[in-house]
Known about the structure:
Two copies of one chain form a homodimer. By secondary structure, chain A is of the alpha/beta class. Chain A is 38% helix and 15% strand.
Amino acid sequence: MTDFAAIKAMFHLPEGMIYLDGNSLGALPKAAGDAVANTVTDQWGEMLITGWNKAGWMAMPMQIGDRIGKLIGAEPGHVVVGDTLSVKVYQALAAGLDMRPDRKVILSDSGNFPTDLYMAEGLIRALDKGHELRVVPPGEVAQAIDKDVAVLMLTEVDYRTGRRHDMPDLTRRAHAAGAVTLWDLAHSAGALPVDLAAAKADFAVGCTYKYLNGGPGAPAFIYVAPRHAGQISTVLSGWQGHEAPFAFDLDYRPNAGAERLRVGTPPILQMAALSAALDIWDKVDMWDLRRRSMALSDMFIAGIEAACPMLRLASPRDAQARGSQVSFAFDEGYAAMQALIARGVIGDFRAPDIMRFGITPLYIDEGDVQGAIDIIADVMTNRLWDRPEYKIRAAVT
Amino acid sequence: MTDFAAIKAMFHLPEGMIYLDGNSLGALPKAAGDAVANTVTDQWGEMLITGWNKAGWMAMPMQIGDRIGKLIGAEPGHVVVGDTLSVKVYQALAAGLDMRPDRKVILSDSGNFPTDLYMAEGLIRALDKGHELRVVPPGEVAQAIDKDVAVLMLTEVDYRTGRRHDMPDLTRRAHAAGAVTLWDLAHSAGALPVDLAAAKADFAVGCTYKYLNGGPGAPAFIYVAPRHAGQISTVLSGWQGHEAPFAFDLDYRPNAGAERLRVGTPPILQMAALSAALDIWDKVDMWDLRRRSMALSDMFIAGIEAACPMLRLASPRDAQARGSQVSFAFDEGYAAMQALIARGVIGDFRAPDIMRFGITPLYIDEGDVQGAIDIIADVMTNRLWDRPEYKIRAAVT
């Protein structure tokens, strides 16, 4: 059994704050400070350039990739860390389109995080081959998969509502229609059990600064299935993905496997923080986490619905159909969230009317949930956002 | 006058090491440790998601960009920090090709850093429109500029030899032929005076972990001339370059200016280190630095040539024609460099036979240069690399 009280003690949490925004930026693991300081002082400062070998910097994108891989059911050696999620979406999407040259449709949904759609638009403009980004409502994805679809690109858990797609089922349907799948796990990795290998996913990407607690601007990750790794094209063909990066050949030859998805020099300080954050996951059973996430979320929904009839649940009521966040719709949600933040309950707002609360069981417990319910009830019942002292500037992202 | 002794005291330098590899990874500014620790503990730890506004994280890519811009003669608001140099090359190159749709040639030289060529290859493969990467010897670039050239892509200072291109002249020639220019400043920014505006450069990119001392994996930068900024296409159209990133619109609309070159969430811990490193540059006059770089390099060349006749100068003898490094060719250079590293003189090796020494006047002085000469003379004269105790594993990059 995962000891969640012990896990919570591994995080630094600000005094007087109930932090329900770990789905946007995870809390600080106490060990991250020393890990980063050590990397700066003892590695950069003392080893200088030799740190690439002596401190193992060069191997970190694959080593950390494997640690993330364990949390998302990836085969060893097939998750690579680096860049931003946007860049990784582009990289996977380009490889996916290249696998289906006779098809022109990227199918996605309106619940996808906008940058995934933007990167698809940019790639389509660059390729200039008549590709089409087809965006349908989340509930119509299954029916929209047809023989024209080259890549089905979805975020498993909707960033606004927390609605969760059925990854194995949609992957199976995509494959039956001859399409390649690209899953964005931004709100899945560290939030719930994912089994990419069992789902037979083709590509996946994700970020590490949300539920994985890697810190602000922590690098992204990309997964490619072993059956594709040696064949995929690498549109972002940087030197770190070269078969022999230090031969400094003038011609590009991709690494034999998934490591070809490396691009440029990796961010060592960010990876030091991320590595410390991943140590915590060694002590967590993902199914324990999921059960606790669902129980805390159900408790939160019940408490809010009982106390705040003006809030309308915007997340699925069935816990199995959600990720690890709960959202409520409210016309004055932006102002109300500002007042909540001023009162120490940190959630966030997503246009047009979504008040979003992340449930991160590594450092949120029943006491936090009850405390949040009590404050939200006070703020909503008394319309505190109408009072001038609560009109602070809201947090972003 | 720049007080170089005071500047040197701002760096941590390992005991017993003469570090001539600042052209690969710059030394640690003493202030960087506290800056990063503060960002981790006081910002990430205490502000959590509100750090994006409260700590100014969101503004850092443009603010730090302007600080770098001052060192390379860029107009304010036209240098953007983020991603890796490889990704920034791709981004600039795609925008440049898009500006010349009727031309099919990317002209570069064999002295370019390989990843620039690899990224061009990847872009050409993706576009699949018959573009050609034409690679000529460095001395033949001027003659090779013709009406077929869409983009002239060059690294100003050759990473192996230190040979420096004439940026204003080649830019003028490129423009006369109707081509767009992309300058890689990896070995220029912080190494010598650069004046992008005066040279009328179109695009520039560079990294910040070499002469700018931003730390391992520090982010890259990209410059676009003001006359192009509002028109260029953004193939990597991520949400941070959107006109209104927090509107979360489904459609991409680029930011009105150079900020459209932002892509994904920026690496805050790396930027904290970089920002501390840039504080040092406020106290440095770039022309003082250049004079000192040339004097120290000339001293190094004279000393080595006097003591080590087996080493052949691989850098231009004329200091004006060099960047801020000195290279020697030697058949057994790899083994000899291993022995040098074992003796505390850190340079690096670049295939096939280049022994490379960076001259970084912020923290290298006459005593270091003389000390290095003495040790190199001992190692070379006595062929220390033949002795088993000197066969250590070499540093990379």
